[in-house]
């Protein structure tokens, strides 16, 4: 996994035979120590002791995990991808990306990952889709007990809208969808059901 001991030896010009007496072990034990470090099985105390004998200190730090490191979308990457699909005239793909983004948001399980997902995204060029995406994020955040960020607060659409590839839905079909639609979306003029927001 790492080569800190061997690298430190090289910097100091020491061989395993030079390091061995400083650690009170044989040269073979030093060689085994370096092998265990490369294999990722070395004990932290052993690594620190070896580096100390070489006049070096081990410093460990962490960085917050990001959604990209887990190969998951954030609100920022999702909004850009949705916008690209809309510009390519593919609303079906845009809807799939919206549901996938919510699924990825649900996989954010640490505070750092949640905060990374919720950073303000660029606006989606179609205001209906921008409102849909913002509402979906706010809806899922609230269901998880997470305070939705301010960017998710969008005004209601001027005309009622059923997201998807077909804009010519019959009034009867729209009423059927509305009967089981999510209230948070209906308040913003978006007619969509929970099952339409679930990634397959």
What characteristics describe this protein?
2 domains; 200 residues
Question: Could you walk me through the main structural features you see in this protein, from its secondary elements to its overall organization?
Answer:
It is a single chain. The radius of gyration is 27 Å and the shape is rod-shaped. The longest helix is centred in the middle third of the chain and has 17 residues, at 91-107. Helices cover 54% and strands 0% of the residues. With 200 residues, it is an all-alpha fold. The protein has helices at 4-12, 16-23, 27-39, 44-53, 75-87, 91-107, 111-117, 127-143, 171-179, 183-186.
Percentage of β-strand residues: under 5%
The total count of strands amounts to 0
The residue ranges in which pLDDT falls below 50 over 5 or more consecutive positions are none
The helicity comes to: 40-55%
Number of domains: 2
Order of helices and strands: HHHHHHHHHH
Mean pLDDT: 92
**Class by SSE composition:** mainly alpha
Instruction: Please tell me how large the radius of gyration is.
Output: 27 Å
């Amino acid at each position: 996994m790492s080569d800190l001991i061997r690298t430190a030896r090289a910097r100091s010009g020491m061989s395993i035979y030079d390091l061995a007496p400083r650690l009170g072990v044989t040269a073979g034990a030093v060689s085994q120590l370096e092998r265990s470090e490369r294999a990722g099985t070395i004990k932290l105390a052993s690594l620190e002791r070896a580096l100390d004998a070489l006049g070096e200190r081990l410093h460990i730090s962490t960085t917050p995990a990001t959604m990209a490191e887990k190969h998951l979308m954030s609100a920022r990457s999702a909004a850009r991808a949705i916008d690209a699909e809309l510009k390519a005239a593919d609303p079906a793909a845009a809807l799939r990306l919206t549901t996938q983004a919510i699924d990825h948001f649900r996989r954010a399980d640490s505070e750092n990952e949640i905060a990374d997902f919720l950073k303000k995204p660029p606006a989606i060029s179609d205001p209906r889709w921008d409102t849909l995406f913002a509402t979906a994020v706010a809806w899922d955040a609230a269901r998880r007990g997470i305070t939705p960020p301010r960017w998710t607060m969008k005004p209601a659409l001027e005309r009622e809208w059923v997201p998807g590839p077909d804009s010519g839905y019959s009034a009867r079909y729209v009423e059927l969808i509305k009967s089981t639609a999510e209230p948070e979306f209906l308040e913003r003029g978006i007619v969509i059901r929970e099952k339409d927001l679930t990634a397959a």
